Amino acid sequence: MLRWLLGGREAQGPVEKTTVLFIGEEQPKNLYTELQVLKGHFDMVRFLVRIDDFRFASAGDDGIVLLWNVQTGERLHELRGHSQQITAITRFQKHSAESSCPMILSASSDRSVSLWDADTGSRVQTVTDLHSSVKCLLVLERLDLWLSGGNVLCVWNRNFELLCKTEVFNDAGITAIIELPKNCIAAAMDKELIIYRLKVPASESESWEIQEVKRLSDHQDSVRALISVNDQAFASGSHVGELIVWDSLDWTIQSYERVFGDTAQADLQSEIKLISPKQNEMSIQHLTSDGEYIIAAIGSGIYVYSLLTKNVIVYRKTAHDSDVLHTLKLPNGQLISCSEDGSVRFWVLQDLPPPAEHASSAFFGMWGFGRANKQPPNQQVKKGADCLVLRSLELTGDLIGHSGAVQMFLPFNDSVLVTCSTDHLIMLWKDGERESRLRSLDLFNKLEQNKGL
Amino acid sequence: MISSPDLVAFTKDDDFRDTYVEINSLPEQFSLPLFPYAGNANPWAKASFAKFTKDFILISEFSEQVGPQPLLTVPDDPKAWGTFDLNYFSLRIMSVDYQASFVGHPPGCGYPKLNFVEDSKVVLGDSKEGAFAYVHHLTLYDLEARGFVRPFCMAYISSDEDKIMQQFQELSSEFSKASECLKTGNRKAFANELEKKLKDLEYTRTVLHKEAELQKKENGCYSTQAIEKANELANVEKSIYEHKDLLKQVTSYPNRKMKDPEFLPYEPEPPSEPPGADQDQISGVSNPDHPSDNPSNTRRPSYTPQFIKAKSAKCFDKRLKTLEELCDVYFFNQTMDQLTQIEKIFRGDLCYISTSQIDTALLKQQKITNFLFEVFRDWEEEPEKPQYGEKLAPNSDNSSNPAPSNEPASLESYTSCVETVLIKMEQDISEEGQQETESSLCGITQDNSEECLEADMKGSVSSGESIEVLGTERSFPAQGSFIQSESQASLQVHYPEVVRRKEASKRTNSQDSIEVLSTTESIIPEDLRASCPGAIYEEEPYNDSSLEHIYQSPASSQRLVDSGMQDAGGFGKEATEQADSACCIGQEGPRFEEPAPELGQECSDNGVVKVAPRSSRAGEQAPGVDDGAPAALLSYELNLIYLSDEVSRLDLDDVSDSTSFMSASTSSERAASPFLSGNPITVKHKRKAGQGALRFIRQYPFAQQAIFSLLSGRTLVVMGADEGKVRKLVSALSIFVPNLGKYAETIKPWLTSPFQITDLHSWKLIGLHRVASPTGSSMLFSLNRYSRYISILDADHKTLRCPPYKGTLIGRLADHRTQIKRGSTYFMHVQSMLSQLCSKAFLYTFCHHLHLPIHPGEGDASVASRRRGFLQHQLGISGEDVKIVQFLGELIKLYYLQEPGKGATPPVFRFDYTTSFLYKI
């Protein structure tokens, strides 16, 4: 294509030099055929938060939080107050006696945290001059409080009163917090995971307390991602591609995968001989889970780990041209990933037909993780670098529109996908058929109102 | 001496009086009259033996000194009339003046009355000369002229009698506008003249008074000299009285025309004006000599009164004023502009004019789909008009203070009133606003104020009946409840004080008007009515404004609201339309004839710069608007807001680009018609593009695929190294690009920087510069990246990369074996095909069951199959053609759903994932 554009008279050939797969322009399964671009941010947009079925908030490096209507693309509110980039943002359902209105909790590099009313766009609460900027936020709706993690872990109630806090970590900060059962909290700090227990006061006189219970130092490099998988397990991923699944109750290792380390050798033998694994190619940028699978964004690849079989069941080593930044598995089995290369891709986990014959088992043996009996089918070998054990990860479509890295995406009702990017834009990808139908509905409503043409 | 002219009396026959009816089939008025069969006669053969080739406009005067004489022609070019004898023809046309230029002492009046006569309009033919003319007589006032009047006439001279007859309504309305413009200027000039004369007379009186006193002292009271002096003094006194009365009459003439926004931008006010200055004027205590107060004095700073001899010079000795002097240079020029415009409007063959009028009328009916392939025109700006009218209403009304006064003391206030109207728009409005709120607070309606008047009247002879008549005539409701009559209502309501102060003098006059209403109106044809002496005095135009706006009334914006259709033709067309359907086709005729800048101006006249004078003045003044120059007039400020709003929506870069592309376009186009500047390809270009398109489809075997891309909303990028070549291709293809609505331009003729995905939202045809440079490669990168959304036509290598097309529709639209030879013919062909397509898309869009389930349980699949079936069997559309109809349908939906007040919403960007192929020659 490019060569043809440059003036070559010969017909367009397969110019794609990269090993990344190329789906082409024919995408019958891609239903996002309508695009709306939302402008409003002046800098990179990093976060998207769903407020309810029709609203979402976006935030980024310009310190502004914008509230949008996902159906019309209308900008509802502009939440201004932070002077520096937003570092964390989350939805905060305020359960008051009268009503429960959705709130937005945002933290910024200007060392402040603010609470916004999503309906009116006004700032309800704010706290400034914190010890350090807040890197992560966690809302515990059950206890009606929220936690902020930075150089110190603080526990706040919903009136922004500081209940308790941990000691200050001078050398490193907390990058992620998740909630564990029994009022426990797991916080990721550099290479360690720290388990805290929150002591709920039994009476009015007592005060809240947060105690460090355990430090988990099994990661060899800094922890990049920390998610809770289900009631029994949570998972963490490190910069060197370690994926550890932990037991939520006793905080022991359920499973340990050093994804890239094991495969590096094999890959060298296979297709990508010239490319030696670099550090960032092993880094786990993002983890997501639907309770059954953990999807890890590792380098420019996507890895699907099954909790059931406790192994990586399928992966695409080069799912994108560049680092994958965010992944999500939809209930319908579709997997979405977005990347620094500016594209969003859709994948489908497909069950494969039973293996017809066995190929070189040694070749794919490294994927066994002690389960060498699983032999990859032959056809997969022919397909190239994509190796799988049970299933395949098929690319069904991609979205190209952003000119910068797609930081995050947010699906709405299967028919709208919101993407945000470093090119300051937010895009609404919509199902064209559905939109057309909705417009027809509007049209006939208006026709009725106007009583004919 | 004057041979009896074969005069064709224009009677309002039914064929002209047809009311505008909603039509389902092709109505009568849209069919062209057939050429009368006359053997083997060539219908295009020049039947007449006229000595001129083209139609022209002639202005003549019946000079009291030399008789009928031609003054000027439009176009001002001797070639225009060739060997045609203008002198002779002037004689002819001036001899059929039916308007009563009677000035004298009507019964019951001791002093001369000005006759605000209606213009007369006749059609006149001179079979010997082969010339036919629409003749519009008008009377201008000149203090030095006999009877204070100077008869003039404007004639549209054509060799085609049918043209004059069939375009009578249009000619009449157009010429009425021009005439009204002249008369407004004339009234102003006349008032100034009278004012001067009054000063002279008053000065004379004081001098004479002194002399008389002196005489009395010297020679005693009864000396001949003293008596002579006393007589002289008495004469002067009488003269003063008469002049004051004249001044009163002329100034009290309701400046109906002032309601017409086109007269508003008179002259920018001196910015140094103290803000409170005109307050005096309104309250009637202004000092006319105050330089900044009275703009007429600003121009002639101080007038030194002169002593007037008892015997004035014989009329043959003096030089008569020229038309320009009579009408105030500004108004004269404006009229000339209008006449030039008229000449352009009616240029060409009758058939052509009728066709384009029908074309426009038909297009106007397709309110929902006409935006797709037609150049943005007046109907685009309809929603804005009412707002304008409302904004302008107070502005314009202050001119029409109708109540004449018996009090000489307030004469100054009258003159200043006339001038205030013209110049002091801004301050007036605040005054007005105040008054308006006051009055609306008090709930004063017209009727109330009339009653107030009544209460104030001392010994008035008015009867209850007369009030009723007036009331019904003008139908004054409470202000605000009916926008319809706001102009009238506010006219009164804004001036409750003034009206009251002037007491009930108008009551007496209104009796006359009642007579007119009750007796003459229905019986006497309009042309003759004016000849009823005494029937139409000051009050007459009043009736006129409500009754006879067919010819006379300005397109008061209020009436726009009033006429439900709100057809944006403007300039009284609505009014005309109410009376005659044929008129609704009014002035759009010239579109195809006019060069682009004028089109822009016309457009601006019709909507955007509604207040600007029509014709090129808009162009002249528009840059000032654009720059935000101190346009002191309020109307301009309104514009400014509006314009800046509009202009700001446009990418400045685009604008400059488009203007640079159109060599003919001026800055005025940018300023005056933002919509047009957003759409650089105008009708004229499109017609020219026909030839290019024809060449394209003959030359490129993949033309159909390219056209398919355009019609289905896929952006086509024409890439090439040579700008001229790319631009040519772009303009050739431009006729196939559907408009997206008001949002933005759809065509980017020349782009030298990489485009973004947001650009693809609006640009559907892009000319891209292929360069071998870093920018070039990044451009290619964007091409490559967005290749799924675009089709790429490589002008240098003659290749096209786009999705395949398998359909029949474009085959008919762009057949490379077409027999059509001429570009304009092909353009017509394309237009008709596209309008057919539009109606299909319309049907498709507005069929409920094609998009929505009939009953709740019905699934999408059955709806989809029904849709397919409809497209296939009812519309005969299959294959890829479905995509075209669907795309157009989406555009129609969006256009229809667009809230008029909300402004333009960005178009949705739709695409589909299909494989592109590379086509080569």
TrEMBL record, chain A:
WD repeat segments: 38-78, 79-126
Q: Pfam families under this entry?
A: Beta-prop_WDR41 (PF25178)
In terms of InterPro entries, this protein maps to: WD40/YVTN_repeat-like_dom_sf, WD40_PAC1, WD40_repeat_CS, WD40_repeat_dom_sf, WD40_rpt, WDR41
* SMART domains xref list: WD40
Keywords (A to Z) from UniProt: Repeat, WD repeat
Protein name per Swiss-Prot or TrEMBL: WD repeat-containing protein 41-like isoform X2
Species name: Huso huso (Beluga)
Provide the taxonomic classification: Eukaryota, Metazoa, Chordata, Craniata, Vertebrata
UniProtKB/TrEMBL annotation, chain B:
The places in or outside the cell where this protein is found are: Cytoplasm
List residues of the UDENN FLCN/SMCR8-type domain: 47-893
Could you tell me the keywords of this UniProt record? Autophagy, Cytoplasm, Guanine-nucleotide releasing factor
Q: Which Pfam families match?
A: Folliculin (PF11704)
Polar residues: compositionally biased ranges: 293-304
Keyword check for DNA repair, yes or no.
no
Q: Which portions of the chain have biased composition (kind: Low complexity)?
A: 393-410
InterPro entries, per this entry?
A: FLCN/SMCR8_DENN (IPR037521), Folliculin/SMCR8_longin (IPR037520)
Q: Domain of life of the organism in this record?
A: Eukaryota
Where do the record's region annotations for Disordered lie?
258-304, 383-411
Q: Name the PANTHER family for this protein.
A: GUANINE NUCLEOTIDE EXCHANGE PROTEIN SMCR8, SMITH-MAGENIS SYNDROME REGION GENE 8 PROTEIN
* Family under the similarity heading: Belongs to the SMCR8 family.
Q: What is this protein called?
A: Guanine nucleotide exchange protein smcr8a-like
Q: Which organism is it from?
A: Huso huso (Beluga)
Taxonomic classification: Eukaryota, Metazoa, Chordata, Craniata, Vertebrata
